[in-house]
Amino acid sequence: KERTLAMIKPDGLLGNYTDDIKKTIIRSGFSIVREMMIQLDEEKAKLFYTEHSAKSFFPDLVRYMTSGPVLLMVLEKYNAISDWRSLIGPTDAKQAKISHPSSIRAMCGSSTERNCVHGSDSRLSAAREISFFFKDIFPG
Ligand code: ATP
Asked: What keywords does the record list, in alphabetical order (predicted)?
């Protein structure tokens, strides 16, 4: 089995999508190994998205990610990383509504930035991201 980091971003939480997202998670065969709600501060948001620090959208991204609490979940199943990425759909939530209408981002996202959920994109980033938030567990 494999583990991945899932996050419901501030727009997902504020829009009350948590229950629907969790239903989709369980229905799709993931187990939720750990769960934690936190408010990211600027420093932590910058560190989490450090690979994007040179991009023009970075200041907006940091503002968005610190605009309210996020819900972090460690998800586990066979092929968890790529299955969770498929379930959330493409980065641009507007595009997702057209091309992947049953994806999570189509349901709760609104733009390229405000796409309501996150998922690790590789084994390496899953290990990094799980350890980043959950100091005490084995990443997978
Ligand atoms: P995530 O890493 O959150 O799962 P992703 O892998 O689909 O998303 P990345 O390219 O890693 O997308 O970008 C990280 C986040 O930065 C996106 O989820 C989105 O919130 C924001 N973002 C990405 N591209 C843009 C953009 N062109 N304009 C504004 N925000 C963007």
From this structure: Kinase, Transferase
Residue nearest to atom 7 of ligand 1 (CA): 91
Q: Is residue 140 in some structural domain?
A: no
Q: Using the atom order of ligand 1, give the atom closest to the CA of residue 49.
A: 14
Residue 32 located in a structural domain: yes
The alpha carbon dihedral of 54, 58, 59, 62 has a sign of negative
Query: 115 CB less than 6 Å from ligand 1?
Result: yes
pTM for this predicted structure: 0.96
With a 6 A CB cut-off, is 91 part of the ligand 1 pocket?
yes
Complex prediction ipTM: 0.92
Catalytic residue IDs: 118
The CATH number of the domain holding residue 84 is: 3.30.70.141
Burial class of residue 77 in the structure, from the number of CB atoms within 10 Å of its CB (0-12 exposed, 13-18 middle, 19+ buried): middle
